[in-house]
Protein 1
Amino acid sequence: MKYHKTNKLGLKLFFLFLVFQSFNFLYAASPIVFFDNGHAQTAGNADWTINGAYSEFADVFKNQGCDVRSLSQMNSKDLSQATILVLPEPNSAYSTDEQNAIVDFANKGGCLFLIADHDGSDRNGDGIDSVGVFNQFASKLGIQFNKKYFSEAPVTGPVIKSVITDGVTAVGNWGSTSVAGLAPSAIAHIRVSAKNGGGAYIITNELPGGGKVVAMGDSSPFDDGTGAPGKQLHNGFTNPAYSHKKLAENCVKWFLTKRPSFTPQACYDSIKSDYLNVSSTNLTDYTNPIDKSDVLNQLQTNLLSLIDKNHQLATKLSADAANNESLSDLNKKAQEVVSFSVLHKETK
């Protein structure tokens, strides 16, 4: 009888141990999200923190099972724990070591959300704004922030159908910049209007190592108006006229999806669509005529680079060019790229 009681006690303890381990496993399995709060995120009237004006933005991550924390210094040890790193409008520069840690994090499969603001938004007066801070290393991630200052609400540029824009009906920005894609895999899901340069409102890039990058040029869309007294800027997050919460939810879901989202074909379709949209826009619609040339040249470079790595897309472009004369010059250059590539390979 004593043995029987002891055995039952042992089973109960073993069961409790399993329950404890299950809870521990579930907690450990929660993706860790770090929000940077150590680079002047509360300078001036900003409050881009998980307990301030970005509290509801942080809740989007929590609602999808993430463990959201603040981080004041970027370092490889802490970032090795993270799945997602959010850098909300830094107004002081990252050190070289921090920049290297951020880029290394993304190159090794980490997810990175970069949120800038307009050119000249130096809130702490130290001589650099978020555009300058990010552009010290953003090119290594296949993007670049434009030096612009404009507002556009709602944004009226082209929108592509994707996992990022699914269910998004309207977005806006209030004192912002735009983003340029430097890598062929960089996709502008929403573009601002031609008069504001036609750059990306939101852009993504998937890195060769599996890392994912989302970049936006305005901090206001995720501002929920709950910043410290006197620190409120523009409450864009809870404004019912815009889909910023849905946009944020889509980005988090994309981050948490391990498989690649955008195939070479999808990248081709996106760049081609952007190229045609920009090509058909009147030059006089641009505030600065060089904007259109810059955008077209970057799109052309990206598409040709994509085709150089995947020659089957050249056949696709030829078929598309047969039905659209606006692609004829681009098609000729693509055929030259393929011919040179094949010739170079044969003469090696």
Note: The longest helix spans residues 2-29.
Protein 2
Amino acid sequence: MPQNPVPLSTLKQGDRATITDLTNQSRRYRAKLLSMGMTPGTMLRIVRLAPMGDPIELDVRGYRLSLRRQECSAVMVQPAPAEKAMATTKSSSETSS
């Protein structure tokens, strides 16, 4: 059963999700996120969190992107089910071996 979208800032290391919306009211900031590939429908993975939880390193479209926690709050995502995230992680590690 699909969950409601949540802010990207609420996910943990290793979590995968699909971007559903960008909620920031600033057109300039929205354009910045879109130019970095943060478009609705894009899959991403939380690579790691800095020791104090800010910034957050993401794997988006095959590259690494670091965003501040406040910036991540503007990105709404649909978390991937745990079993799907595990299968995606396993298949990506097998192809990189």
Note: The longest strand covers residues 16-22.
Protein 3
Amino acid sequence: MTKPAAGLPLVELHTHLEGSLMPQRLIDLCERHGRPGLAARCLTPDGSAYRQGDFAAFLELYRDITSVIRTPADFHALALDLGRQFLDDGVGFAEVSVSVGVMLKREIAPGPVFAALAEAAAETAETSGVTMRWIPDAVRQWGVDEGWRAWEAAHAAGRACGVVGFGLGGDEAHGPAADFATLFAVVKAEGYGVTIHAGEVPAMGEAGRESVRQAVIDCGARRIGHGLAAAGDPGLLALLADRGVCVELCPRSNVATGGIARLEDHPLRAFLDAGVPCCLNTDDRTLFGLDLQGEYAAARESLGLAGEEAEGMINCALKARSDLETTD
């Protein structure tokens, strides 16, 4: 498969480290941590791919796999695996989300983990030329206090470990972005990028659109993860376009989680036609068996993405990198 734009390296801004756990690595971790039966529950009978189901099944799968990512060595190995996936996929630069909120919940010390991730990123850059940076994130439904703990851990790791931004994920219905406005004001004041999952499920309707507004207006997000709920609101699309907020679109992931029924239903065209900066991403690449070249191919085939539009999206991702906002 060729790249969507000749000579232009791919950029991934929305991919989760934990969602990039390869099946064989899961098997190894389950054996290492004394949970051999867990891998069989998560994987297809031949062990080559993850079992697929509805969104509830996806959340259970995510809980299962993160339960065996425990030590700095585990994270180091996972990051090296991801670096090789990027190389094979033609991705030259990636900002990778890491759930520091989950680490803290599982009583895993973030400092040694981020040191291990920094080592893996340096090794990947040296051996393959692929650059990886880190976007730690908090889990919104666990509350603002836990969000502050996650930010403090991320800030302590800092630029020395390749941290370039801070994010917010989780259940939008039980963790309004506006609650975290003061936290993200501090994140921005420290010169880090702000990227927030918002409007991921169109079925949330106005609540999903309000989630996007809060992320942008209250928290000053420069990037929105998914953002599908915004597509049906011309005023909200205009807000995103006017403020230059980049929307990290993940079409095939949205189908896999049941956020949309068919790829043809994805509102990519609404964002492009409204002049909203946006780019394509895999989200949870190995859990769903995705790659970024495949995202561009699928958008071309099912959503009518033209070659110059694909090039524009890659350039948008280059310009929206959080590492461009950081200062020494």
Note: The first helix runs from residue 23 to 32.
Protein 4
Amino acid sequence: MANIKSAAKRARRSLAQRSVNRRNRSILKNAIKEARGAKAGAAAGASEKQLSALYSALDKSVYKGILHKNAAARHKHRLAKLLRGSPHSNL
């Protein structure tokens, strides 16, 4: 237990922030999984819609500091390549 008031507050805040960070990472991971599953799924329209939602989730995660901007660009490129059916997409 913290002896100083500010340290106790900092501990509370870090617990709250941890839950926010975990939620944001979970949302991002689920969006990526759904987009990858869309390739095996239905029509191209649905996959386009999910790809758009994934791009939005990736951009938000960059803004929030969860991902580096180059990592988000890498995810976007790989998913777009996978959904368009490139023969060299090795995800």
Note: The chain has a mean pLDDT of 84.
